[in-house]
Design brief:
- Helix 10 crosses helix 11, helix 12 crosses helix 13 and helix 12 runs parallel beside helix 15 (401-414).
- The protein is of the alpha+beta class.
- It is globular and about 60 Å long.
- The protein has helices spanning 13-24, 53-57, 66-72, 83-100, 126-141, 153-160, 176-179, 193-201, 207-212, 215-222, 224-234, 265-286, 318-332, 363-382, 401-414, and strands at residues 5-10, 35-37, 50-51, 77-79, 103-108, 111-115, 145-150, 168-170, 252-262, 289-299, 304-315, 339-350.
- It is 42% helix and 19% strand.
- Strand 7, helix 6 and strand 8 form a beta-alpha-beta unit.
- The longest helix has 22 residues, at 265-286.
């Protein structure tokens, strides 16, 4: 039985969901004007989480600071994030997908994979049924999706990123040379900016050139594990299954490749706090704690170094994790070599509620837990940019504002689990 995989991706999800709600209430459609989700227009702070097609024509980009977006498009309409709305619409469109597919894997809040293998007797035309799923979501819920179709997950995902919005595309293995190989190498799934620049410097500019590259040379450029994965992806090879239930996380991490090298400890600490904040919040959301903390840095000569510490007691408290992160970073970096990447990770995950008891009440720790709970509640209601921890840790916001957009965008990516 040949595998048949669909990738369903909501078009500009956060903006589409807000627009659909307003249209249903008789208001104007945000998708038809220069508009975006995220940030505070008056303070010109925060990050763009999603933008309309008219806003894109002005050069507005997902992940950039609001102030920059407003300079490009002064009339940009900004709507605040509403994560309860997003979760509700995420469930609704995936419920429609489950009407058709035996197995549905939630990949992120606005994406899912469908394993349609073995459904040919029910749905003899895979393209026609993809159009039916797409149109059902549009007609019932008021927003559009793209659907990519192939024999595996990587090609289905690549196909769904072709022309948007409201489209169905195929990328079967026999179509890879014509449809995928001419694309720029940076368009291949999982290739970040730094990796793309390294490949382009080596005159590898298309996915086809990457696919034809000698594996050993590619591994020399980007490392053995990454090289093998990119070589497989470029050749359309992927045997990962569509999972009905998500696997439990073995660890949580977040990292960011910086537009400008970090050269000062104050700069680094602002970024490390934001990374720690995102990692610990994800742990609390999943009800888990970690017993091992690590910090990774990459210097501007592309050399990676990391340092980790085992804990006697598992924790999910941002303040505790951040203190250890600062210690590890201070031991890891001499303050002289410019850094282009910073990362924070936690492993040895504990899912038990047991906490080592002390004979004395730890007032400082209890206060930190209450702060975390309050911050999580505020962000759950008003969005991730509604409150910042920087001032509470004596950190200057002037060195962190430029990197905040990068870190929040990286966090969106981390919410999409890799396969």
């Amino acid at each position: 039985m040949e595998k048949l995989i669909y990738h369903v991706d909501v078009n500009s999800a956060f903006l589409s969901w807000e627009a659909a709600r307003r249209v249903e209430a008789g208001e104007a459609d945000l998708r038809l004007i220069p508009s975006a989700i995220g940030g505070d227009r008056e303070k010109r702070t925060g990050v763009i989480l999603a933008k309309s097609i008219p806003a894109k024509k002005f050069g507005v980009k997902t992940g950039e600071p609001v102030g920059m977006a407003l300079r490009k498009c002064p009339d940009l309409y900004l709507a605040r994030p509403d994560f309860k709305l997003y979760e509700r619409n995420s469930r609704r469109f995936m419920d429609i997908c489950r009407r058709y597919a035996p197995v549905v894997e939630k990949y992120s809040i606005d994406e899912c994979f469908l394993d349609m293998s073995g459904t040919s007797l029910i749905y003899p035309d895979p393209v026609a049924i993809a159009h039916e799923i797409k149109d059902t979501i549009r007609d019932e819920l008021g927003f559009t999706v793209n659907i990519g179709i192939s024999r595996n997950k990587i090609l289905a995902k690549m196909a769904s990123d072709f022309e948007k919005p409201d489209r169905v595309h195929t990328l079967f293995p026999e179509e890879v040379p014509a449809k995928m190989w001419p694309m720029p190498v940076r368009e291949l799934f999982s290739i970040g900016r730094a990796t793309a620049e390294r490949l382009e410097t080596a005159n590898i500019r298309t996915i086809g050139e990457l696919a034809a590259m000698e594996l050993g040379r590619l591994q020399f450029l980007v490392g053995n594990k990454m090289g093998t994965m990119l070589h497989d992806y470029a050749n359309g090879i992927d045997d990962s299954p569509v999972l009905a239930q998500p696997e439990e996380a073995k660890g949580y991490s977040n990292s960011t490749t910086l537009e400008e090298d970090v050269t000062e400890f104050e700069q680094a600490n602002v970024i490390l706090l934001a990374l720690t904040d995102s990692v610990s919040a994800r742990m609390r959301a999943d009800g888990v704690k970690a017993c091992c903390i690590s910090v990774t840095v990459r210097s501007n000569d592309f050399k990676d170094r990391s340092h980790q510490k085992k804990l006697e007691e598992a924790t999910d408290i941002t303040a505790e994790i951040y203190e250890i992160v600062k210690q590890l970073f201070a031991e890891l970096w001499d303050g002289k070599t410019p850094l282009r990447l910073l990362g924070v990770a936690v492993t040895d995950i504990s899912r038990e509620d047991y906490v080592q008891q002390s004979l004395f009440f730890d007032e400082k720790r209890e206060k930190a837990r209450k702060i975390d709970k309050a911050v999580d509640n505020i962000r759950g209601r008003y969005g991730t940019d509604a409150i910042s921890r920087g001032s509470a840790y004596g950190l200057s916001s002037r060195v962190g504002s430029k990197h905040k957009a990068q870190i929040e965008l990286e966090q969106e990516k981390k919410n999409k689990k890799t396969y």
